[in-house]
Design goal:
The structure is a single chain. With about 400 residues, the chain is α/β, with parallel strands linked by helices. The protein has helices spanning about 5-20, 20-25, 40-45, 50-55, 90-105, 125-135, 150-155, 165-180, 200-210, 325-330, 365-380; strands at about 70-75, 85, 115, 140, 160-165, 190-195, 215-220, 225-230, 240, 245-250, 265-270, 280-285, 290, 300-305, 310, 315, 320, 335-345, 350-360, 385-390, 405. The chain has two domains: about 90-310, ANL, N-terminal domain (Rossmann fold, 3-Layer(aba) Sandwich); about 315-405, 2-Layer Sandwich (GMP Synthetase, Chain A, domain 3). Helix 5 (about 90-105) crosses helix 6 (about 125-135), helix 8 runs parallel beside helix 9 and helix 10 crosses helix 11 (about 365-380). It starts with a helix and ends with a strand. Belongs to the phenylacetyl-CoA ligase family.
Length: about 400
């Protein structure tokens, strides 16, 4: 689909939501959206935020009659009012098409057996993966979240060839396989992991233990769910399905649209969604659109690996810090493993930043602590308190790993 066609469909969706969506009728009330727009006019439209969706609770963004809604999904709501997203029958079909494409990009075939470990229910992940796998014709093992003993039993006995989940839970699986000496008993070939940013240390640990090829998959509840973008075998960025979604990259502070190649916040417009289309939705995820074509030959454009979120910045001693910066420092120090955690505390009314990091077996904890202090002083500009821990001491998660704990008052 060429850019002119994509923009034409975006403009048509803008006009549609301005008439049918209570949320957008209010948002676009004073804007001239009834006629054909220029690209510049489109880029001047106000962004849609998660707070807009919370304010529209439960379904104030709905664009179709009630009898055309066949399912709803929801965000966790852990940081406020949950976001409820309705789906039409066509929305679910479109989502399944994108999920099937993701599996094909990852080399999954109908002869594969897919163990789906994300949760089923209001969260989008489990059902989204299942729909795509069934459309492809592969066997689904819908284990859902938790119960690692059961997961490993079924993985072995049903000879699962593809593991699907968060990178955090993939690490749990890998460590348990290693601990129980099960590597020779399982048949995994591939992993498809998403829902959180994961760095090279975790990738190395999973590969060392399971020996599988794995793929980044991208999506979010507000935009269908997982499956709007995925790695290919070149592992040179995630192909996003530009015939369903339009992506922009903006400067998180100014909101200005950035050219291809520059890093910023991903903004998405769902120009084919029926029940709850979104116009210029701020995802808060930081990436860039990779210029040029991928050597795999796919016509779909690429997003680079997600490096963090524009809203996960923490301020310590007057310094702005992203967890990804700490992860990068740990990556440069030989002897650290994949797991780390940042704890923020008050000490004598001043900020105190503790960095807990697991070491590899045989490493010198005192030497690693000194290198970590120096690395953070150089890379972050502040002095941290190091806590070097043995492998396995930090908590593991079946969902997303909590990297920052703020105990400041």
């Amino acid at each position: 689909m060429n850019e002119l066609t994509i923009m034409s469909q975006c403009f048509a969706q803008v006009r549609r939501v301005a008439k049918l969506s209570p949320m957008y009728r209010k948002k676009f009330a004073e804007l001239p959206v009834d006629t054909m727009m220029t690209r510049e006019q489109f880029e001047s439209l106000p962004f849609t935020t998660k707070q807009d969706l919370r304010d529209a609770y439960p379904m104030g963004m709905q664009c179709v009659p009630d009898d055309e809604i066949v399912r709803v999904h929801s965000s966790s709501g852990t940081t406020g009012t949950p976001v409820i997203m309705p789906y039409s029958r066509q929305d679910l079909e479109d989502w399944a098409v994108m999920m099937e494409r993701c599996f094909q990009f990852a080399g999954v075939t109908p002869s594969d057996r897919l163990q789906i470990t994300p949760g089923f229910g209001l969260w989008t992940a489990g059902l989204g993966f299942q729909a795509g796998a069934e459309r492809l014709g592969a066997m689904v093992i819908p284990t859902g979240a938790g119960n690692t003993d059961r997961q490993l039993q079924l993985m072995r006995d049903l000879q699962a060839s593809v593991l699907i989940g968060t990178s955090s839970y993939a690490l749990v699986i890998a460590e348990e396989v290693d601990k129980r000496k099960m590597k020779g008993d399982i048949h995994l070939k591939r992993g498809i992991f998403g829902s959180e940013r994961w760095g090279d240390k975790i990738r190395e640990r999973i590969y060392e233990t399971l020996g599988i090829e794995f793929f980044d998959i991208y999506g979010l509840t507000e935009i269908y769910g997982p499956g709007i973008a995925i790695d290919c075998h070149e592992h040179a960025g995630m192909h996003y399905f530009s015939d369903y979604v339009y992506c922009e990259i903006i400067d998180p502070k100014s909101g200005k649209v950035l050219p291809a190649g520059e890093q910023g916040e991903i903004v998405i417009t769902t120009f084919r969604k029926e029940a709850a289309p979104l116009i210029r939705y701020r995802t808060r995820d930081i990436s860039r659109i990779i210029p040029g074509e991928c050597s795999c030959g796919s016509p779909f454009p690429r997003l680079d690996r997600i490096v963090g979120r524009s809203d996960d910045m923490i301020k310590v001693k007057g310094t702005n810090i992203y967890p990804a910066q700490v992860e990068e420092i740990l990556k440069q120090i030989d002897g650290f493993g994949s797991e780390y955690r940042i704890i923020l505390e008050n000490e004598d009314l001043r900020d105190r930043m503790v960095v807990q990091a697991e070491m590899r077996e045989g490493a010198d904890p005192e030497e690693l602590a000194e290198k970590l202090v120096r690395g953070c002083k150089s890379g972050l500009g502040i002095r941290i308190v190091p806590q070097v821990m043995k492998n396995g001491e930090l908590p593991r998660s079946e969902k997303k790993t909590q990297r920052v704990i703020d105990k400041r008052y």
